[in-house]
Amino acid sequence: MAVDLTPSPDVAELARRTAEFVREVVIPVEEANDGVARSEEIRAALQSGAKDAGVFAPHVGTEYGGHGLDMRGRAAVFEEAGYSLLGPLALNIAAPDEGNMHMLEAIATGEQKERYLRPLATGDIRSCFAMTEPAPGAGSDPGALTTRATRVPGGWRIDGRKWFITGADGAGFAICMARTSGEPGETGGATMFLVDADNPGMTSVRHIDTLDESLYGGHIELVFDNCVVPDEAVLGEVDEGFRYAQVRLGPARMTHCMRWLGIARRAQDIAVARAAERELFGSRLGELGMVQQLIADSEIDIAACRGLILQACWELDQGRSASQSTSIAKTFCAEAIWRVVDRAVQICGSLGISGDLLLGRFLREVRPFRIYDGPSETHRWAIARRVLRRHDAKAAR
């Protein structure tokens, strides 16, 4: 049976228009700001441009002003948006908002969708996802969750500390994961809560200084202290937070891969252009065998990333959990994308490490991808466990 990975004509056209918008509108802004949008004015201008170009919010349903793309459709469009560090922000598909929109569409009540999803989808507000905690709390092991929500008259009181909460600075609301039953180390008993930014019980402690800077709203440490929310703030069902998190995590891992694949392509294009024009030792740089190997290896990594992403997205679109395929794709892409950008720096030499190109910025931005959304080591552990379980199941037949 023939395998056709070509996107549908409407998706291909949206991807083409996204690529055009990113190159003509977004990249000049990116280059003028060292790849970092540091003001609401920049964000608003980019998103206004995306709306004018008809490429805004490709992932959300048409009833919220989006294009309603499935995961495979997102793969093509998100990669084109990711060709610039600011492309995802412009299209309103940057983390964590994109993943939060996906989850709200799937599990929020009608009232919650109108109050939180609709303004988030239009770019009127931003959001954050407050799950990660300082040690010994939740990190690679979500079951270590220590933040606790306790029943009070008419609602819940949340107490705990979160950190590395991306986008929290200026967010209109947080989706906070808190333990409503059980103890740290247990895999159940978590609940998600919608917490408005003006809740006096949620305060920002500090911006965490990090290697990367391009994710809008920074990485923030938050404290929940006597943070009281009403019963209507519960997202989904009580004690089902870990299960709902899977609705978000698998697709979010893939959309991270899609966006960063765009940056890998950008780095490769920069390196190839340099290799084609730079002359030394009596020939073009690209005619030297070792440079050709670097270019070829990056092409292989880019193609392999795209194939693994599409495989995982196909499974997600079929309604499967896709746990194994998303772990494999996330692990491979996080490492391969780093390799591509690193090779581009090497090919460009002194120019590559200078501020005249954005390759140094790309390198700093993609390195944390091997840690967030599950470090490579955690994914490898999970991949191996699934393989061994499959072996044991076969052996027991």
Protein model, in words:
Helix content is 50%, strand content 15%. With 397 residues, the chain is of the alpha+beta class. The strands form three sheets. It has a four-stranded mixed β-sheet with strand order 1-4-5-8, covered by helices on one side. Helix 5 packs antiparallel against helix 7, helix 7 runs antiparallel to helix 8 and helix 9 packs antiparallel against helix 10. The longest helix is centred in the middle third of the chain and has 37 residues, at 241-277. The two termini are 31 Å apart.
- Distance between termini? 31 Å
What structural category arises from helix and sheet content?
alpha+beta
Taking pLDDT < 50 over at least 5 consecutive residues as the criterion, the unreliable ranges are none
* Global shape: globular
List how many beta strands DSSP finds.
Answer: 10
Helix content: 40-55%
**What is the CATH domain class of the largest domain?**
Mainly Alpha
